[in-house]
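In keeping with the milestone schedule agreed at the kick-off meeting, the structural modelling team has produced records for the first pair of proteins. Each record is given below as a sequence line and a structure-token line. The laboratory manager (R.T.) confirmed that both were archived under the project's standard naming scheme.
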Amino acid sequence: MRTLVTTFCAESPAGREVRVIDMANLVNELTGNPAGLRYIPRRKWDHKSRLLASIEKARRLIGHAPQTDFRLGLEHTVCWFRDHWPKSSPRRGSDW
């Protein structure tokens, strides 16, 4: 049986969960990666099907309140890497 490991969810400003498969598809879309996704069986120790990180402590201690939604944040991240990743890096594809 082949499944996508879905042990990470990020909290968006609206408090919505983001599934791993949705995040992976979005990364591929934003980077123009044609490779697609590879589905693998869960590892023995991978018991959780969901994990939602909370920013409640940061909100309480320093007043942090996210202003950028998940997609826009990923778009900014991809743009930053395109602008700052060394062109000579062997890990960087030529399509960037």
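The second protein of the pair:
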Amino acid sequence: MATTRKGNDQKLAVGQNRDEADGDEETPLLRNYDNENSSRRSTKTQLFLCVCILGTELCERLTFFGTAANLVPYCEDVLKLQTPVPSQINLSFVGKMKIL
């Protein structure tokens, strides 16, 4: 049977998973650095990630409200739809987006 080398000199069979070979589910997948700068870096990283998430949410909301505001004039002017239909399209668009 063919084998491959694993990082810590244990052999794995070709069809065998690392979980089956180790049997150790307690070891973390990411390294934990225990120095003074790790807490500061993680706080800066968390702050950066929060800013990115909030910026993305802001852009999504601006896109949604911009589309909803321009949908009625677009339906009336470009598509030449009669008066109640553009409002119904706008209401169904807003309702479907709120559900999602």
